[in-house]
Amino acid sequence: MNDFITNGRKYSIIYFGFGRASSKAVLIMLFALYGLYSANTDGVQTALVSDLIDKNKKGTGLGIYNSLVGITLLPASIIAGLLYDQMNNRDPFYFGSIMALIAAIFMMIF
Questions:
Q1: What is the 3-state secondary structure (H, E, C) of the chain?
Q2: DSSP of 31-54, one letter per residue?
Q3: What region does 8 belong to: left with phi over 0, alpha with psi -120 to 50, or beta?
Q4: For a tag site, which of 7, 31, 42, 100 has the least CB within 10 Å?
């Protein structure tokens, strides 16, 4: 569980960095860090879900997990688009950073 909290903070920092970035070199570094973050967490999340599900229902469980991820991406994309259009191009990254930090805090509490 500690790894999930640490990864949530890393995600928050990287997204905050995207909002603050002002040079190509910093953006390239952040994209590389984001790629490393994704490579380290995406497979682990699926493996955790797979371990938690009864082995006779793995297909159903992984389908539900991926459906929930997809469903939550829709409002996240809408919010990001609205922030981008109505505010400025940095706000979606700040919003993502804040949400990741709040999620990490909730994981520490619960």
A1: CHHHHHHHHHHHHHHHHHHHCCCHHHHHHHHHHHHHHHHHHHHHHHHHHHHHCCHHHHHHHHHHHHHHHHHHHHHHHHHHHHHHHHCCCCHHHHHHHHHHHHHHHHHHHC
A2: HHHHHHHHHHHHHHHHHHHHHHS-
A3: alpha
A4: 42
Contact 8, 100 (CB under 8 A): yes
pTM of the model: 0.77
CB of 107 closer than 8 Å to CB of 8 = yes
Buried b (16+ CB within 10 A) or exposed e, 21-48: beeeeeeeebeebbeebeeebeeeeeee
Q: 79, 95 in Cβ contact below 8 A?
A: yes
Q: Is the pLDDT of residue 37 over 80?
A: yes
70, pLDDT greater than 60: yes
Q: Which amino acid is at 56?
A: N
